[in-house]
């Protein structure tokens, strides 16, 4: 039996060396950056004649500035050249940078280390686009969510471990040399792993690289805006980094001021938040059913806001001095930990499907440049996050819990805007919830549906849930043909219009709707979409497959396309079927029912006919109603 777990990727060469490379890089970046800040804060008390507080913000700017300056060029390089070679050169540069940094750490040359911090940011800016652009080439579509989940989990765990190790190493009698050896060793491990990454061919080998940072950055924005849904997904990802940066930056003062915690409380809050994101990322694979499922994204955004608001209302009214153990065990503090863990989990659910969606939907020859644009937006949003925190906490005078509350409310507003602009998110959310609460859907041979290009899906019609079950199971968006009367109901009508459903009615009663339906079907097929029809024309009243009408023949005469016969089993007898009387006329008798959706081998248009497809669907359904 095939193993569908994303963790099997960690045993395969096409993924493991890349995973180790990116993990070691993220680990090293955070170890070096945090160790440098701790050394400057506790050893010298400042640098360049500046206070430690100013130096901390200067370091953050030096690390993030290269993402604005060099992401455009990095995206061009990743599209222009073979990707494993690009990664090896980046990792070789890291070995050189960290080798020099090791010398600086050993001898305490802190001014030089700040220049190297900028170069570390440059190296990370070049790694970002190729890091995400290589995944769709190395993984199957069904593995893309799992692969991204592992990458996000690895990245946040590396951030956590790097940050913690910096603090641990500072406790050494002479911390500089210990940190020097660690950063040099991690860079070498990253390079060795990179040497094992399989080749991934260049996406745009004829691309001319232009070293014009500002002009190319602006051009990059235009490339990202080419696909409206991808662009809004990029903004949604950057919004997550806006929120994440806001939370992480405030943890030290939040722990000290509002929890009266010692330094171990900052560490445990960071650990809880990071573990939550890692857990949420990994959960995406199971919740999405091994495909890119946008329906999870609204769940993530709702959870981010709900638990952010809950955090505000569960702050201890009269905090007492605390340590990390109290945060976990004391009921007054434990809810804070639970809320932060949940915020992390729902953050993982929010971000992983979006990354996978951007990778899949971006054109292969511009994918790395789209990811580069994403990195620029991420950096920009994190800077704006810091400025907003300074405004609200310093100028307006909000407390940190009040700031978190404002962020949670803002998140609902931003989410509402994105889902209104990209209806697929809201649509997939409704479908996902219904297909994971009312029913347990098993899929059989849905890989027989073409991955691209037009196709006509034909299926038996058992209940009012049929379209939602199919839409939730099929990876590609599907345009359904449905009775025009359903559009008259306010809620259901709005929902199906959002889903771009095609209304149809009897030719004898509503000829204009009938003709318009076939025109729409032809347009959707011409545009390369999937169209699903229920050729019986109505719900079954006895559970059996009724006679297929001639509509399918008309469609294929106008537009000869591949036809995929499908069958639903297990929906007869549900609340939404006509079993025991009209649908909705009797109380539901079962929930979480097991139903099956099956697909047969595709049929060519020259062979397909209403009668032939009827027999195919009957045979596929068998005796299971």
UniProtKB/TrEMBL annotation:
<feature type="transmembrane region" description="Helical">
    <location>
        <begin position="89"/>
        <end position="107"/>
    </location>
</feature>
<dbReference type="InterPro" id="IPR002123">
    <property type="entry name" value="Plipid/glycerol_acylTrfase"/>
</dbReference>
<keyword id="KW-0813">Transport</keyword>
<protein>
    <submittedName>
        <fullName>MFS transporter</fullName>
    </submittedName>
</protein>
<feature type="transmembrane region" description="Helical">
    <location>
        <begin position="229"/>
        <end position="249"/>
    </location>
</feature>
<dbReference type="InterPro" id="IPR036259">
    <property type="entry name" value="MFS_trans_sf"/>
</dbReference>
<feature type="transmembrane region" description="Helical">
    <location>
        <begin position="176"/>
        <end position="195"/>
    </location>
</feature>
<feature type="transmembrane region" description="Helical">
    <location>
        <begin position="113"/>
        <end position="135"/>
    </location>
</feature>
<feature type="transmembrane region" description="Helical">
    <location>
        <begin position="370"/>
        <end position="397"/>
    </location>
</feature>
<keyword id="KW-1003">Cell membrane</keyword>
<feature type="transmembrane region" description="Helical">
    <location>
        <begin position="403"/>
        <end position="419"/>
    </location>
</feature>
<feature type="transmembrane region" description="Helical">
    <location>
        <begin position="335"/>
        <end position="358"/>
    </location>
</feature>
<feature type="transmembrane region" description="Helical">
    <location>
        <begin position="58"/>
        <end position="77"/>
    </location>
</feature>
<keyword id="KW-1133">Transmembrane helix</keyword>
<feature type="transmembrane region" description="Helical">
    <location>
        <begin position="147"/>
        <end position="170"/>
    </location>
</feature>
<feature type="domain" description="Phospholipid/glycerol acyltransferase">
    <location>
        <begin position="455"/>
        <end position="571"/>
    </location>
</feature>
<keyword id="KW-0812">Transmembrane</keyword>
<feature type="transmembrane region" description="Helical">
    <location>
        <begin position="296"/>
        <end position="315"/>
    </location>
</feature>
<feature type="transmembrane region" description="Helical">
    <location>
        <begin position="264"/>
        <end position="284"/>
    </location>
</feature>
<keyword id="KW-0472">Membrane</keyword>
<dbReference type="Pfam" id="PF01553">
    <property type="entry name" value="Acyltransferase"/>
</dbReference>
<dbReference type="Pfam" id="PF07690">
    <property type="entry name" value="MFS_1"/>
</dbReference>
<dbReference type="InterPro" id="IPR011701">
    <property type="entry name" value="MFS"/>
</dbReference>
